[in-house]
Amino acid sequence: MTTAGADGPATAETAGSASPDGDAEPGGAVAPPGYARRLNVVSALVTLVTGAVAAVLSWNLGVGTLAAPGAGLWPLVVGVAMVVVSALLVLRSRPRGDEEPFTKDAVTVAIAVASLLGYAVLFELVGFEVPTLALLVLWMKGLGRESWRVTAAVSVVATAVLYLLFITGLGVSLPHLIAL
Amino acid sequence: MDFLSPVMSGFGVVFQPENLLYCLLGVTLGMLVGVLPGLGPAATIAVLLPITYNIEPTAAIIMLAGIFYGAQYGGTITSVLLRLPGEASSVVTAIDGHELAKQGRAGTALGIAAIGSFIGGTVAIVALTFVAPLVAGFAIDFGPSEYTALALLGILLITTLGSGSRLKSVLMATVGLLLATVGQDPLEGAARLTFGVDPLLDGIDFVIVAMGLFGVAEILHNMESLRRPQPPAVKVDSVYPSRRDLGESKGAIARGSVLGFLLGILPGGGATMSSMVAYAVEKRAAKEPGKFGKGAVQGVAGPETANNAGATSSFIPLLTLGIPANATMAVMFGALLIQGITPGPTLVDEKPDLFWGVVNSMYVGNLLLLAMSMPLIGLFVRVLRVRAAILAPLTILITMIGVYTVRLSVFDMFLMVGLGVLGYLMKKAGFEPGPLVLAFVLGELLESSFRRSMRIFGGDLTGFLTQPITASLLALILLIVLAPWALRATRGKAPV
């Protein structure tokens, strides 16, 4: 185990360099160095602040003593560790090669997230059928540019299958309009 | 050979029709997941977790395990045919596998990979049968201090041996540990970091974390390339390798089986590392290393054998110590907890039917996968043509509805989408979700065993060093942390 621990990263590195280039990774555009560095600094600052807030809140919960640890001791330890590691990352923010730039494709993702939030809001209000159909149509036609024929067919069949799977098959009480 | 009788009765469990059906379902799903772009095995298992609530424990774990090792077979297909590794563990296969495909020998590559996978998987199950009870027997007397060290070691190894930057992985592990503390304190009941949100009092459910960070995040990340053109249709020649090909890969398959099994057992190891190391070993062992990268059969046989052996043996730390070795095993850990089963050293004695039922189901699963990868390969090659724009909404809906069914709670949907967005941003900024999820899973164990140890030692931190096994584990941790620096220092000074 010892040798593998010591050699592990080195071996993975050599094998990694022999692996196919970035083009094999779907959606794997690599961010330019300056951009990647900023991305790393921003991420590290976010975790640094989060860790600091968590540490303060934990302190207020009461840390107890080492012999009888209180509720706050462990989260305090974790929060402090988070701050230290974040600070290290701010200092060593060089690009690692796995940072990706936000391009106009990110708009698709934002729309997708908004539609999921909408889905959750409507789910209990109007039952699962309508939001499910709407989400399928939006994602396939609106975001995926499928033909209307494919969109209509898949949406209807998929909604029916989900109904059968969850409500009829698994007997889960989902809010729904159509009673079978 | 007394211990073999529960092993044998495990076969009785496997051959119950229901369990056979779930095994078939699992490996078929695994093959599909491996072939289809987008979701990996960890994400798929995460997405299906809510559905397993309604299935009997043994059947559920048999199915989920099938998805995991089935994906190792399926991942090969896209690696060889399109040079798009479906799974991280098939990345190195793409190098020589795709070269072979370009030479019109895609069938040979796939056939050799299937045979190697079958042998590697089967060898690993046999070895697991003998090794797992030994490890469990050794760990049975572990107390809180040993578990503190073991959980720390598990988190540390996944951050060191995983892909990506170490510093970033460690940071993600601390985030996972912090998320695990949200909710009521396990020992005293004080509300921690809940910000007054009542549904958070019970803590964040592991299912939601796994579904959000693996499932939703991966789907969102794939949305960016939703409109990429569909891959061209590919033809596959005969998958039955010639005698010469078999002769050339014999050694690679043998070495891959042993190597994969050994590396899979290590916490932080598993299929991906096994395949990479196996490729490097084959390249070094080859009589004509120049052929590597230009279509060497051994370059496919070695890694594909090793990733299956590693996938199988990575069940050992989970089932015998309760420490998941990698991200997918962390999700399996969650699946077991859902079923009310805490994996650990007592599992093999207390639930022999489940333990041996799951282990032995892998023989059947591997046999089914061999059939799917050789005579039925044409079916799965056609699946490559399914478009992401159709797949994405279907998977997200199963995920959304699935998470709702856990507690019939819309709050959980929002929480999962939130974690999904976090996972997407992490991916963009180059942070792996694996260490976070693994640390989240081990967080509670780590905290409660740490606090119990501190009580036992009366607040004296040096108490950890008085326990021989704990002290050895801690020494190992120190060694792993310091080794890279030491290596770098000596390398820097040594004249080149």
TrEMBL record, chain A:
User: Which UniProt keywords are given for this protein, alphabetically ordered?
Assistant: Membrane, Transmembrane, Transmembrane helix
Membrane-crossing residue ranges in chain numbering: 41-61, 73-91, 111-138, 150-174
What name has this protein been given in UniProt?
Tripartite tricarboxylate transporter TctB family protein
Residues forming the DUF1468 domain are 42-175
Which Pfam family, an example, fits this chain? TctB
Q: What are the boundaries of the signal sequence?
A: none
Does RNA-binding count among this protein's keywords? no
TrEMBL record, chain B:
Q: Which UniProt keywords apply?
A: Membrane, Transmembrane, Transmembrane helix
Organism, per UniProt? Answer: Actinomadura vinacea
What is this protein called in UniProt? Tripartite tricarboxylate transporter permease
UniProt domain DUF112: residue ranges: 20-438
Domain of life from the UniProt record: Bacteria
Q: Which residues cross the membrane?
A: 20-53, 109-135, 147-163, 318-341, 361-381, 388-404, 461-487
Q: Which residues form a coiled coil?
A: none
Q: What is the lineage of its organism?
A: Bacteria, Bacillati, Actinomycetota, Actinomycetes, Streptosporangiales
| Entry-linked PANTHER family | TRICARBOXYLIC TRANSPORT PROTEIN (PTHR35342:SF5)
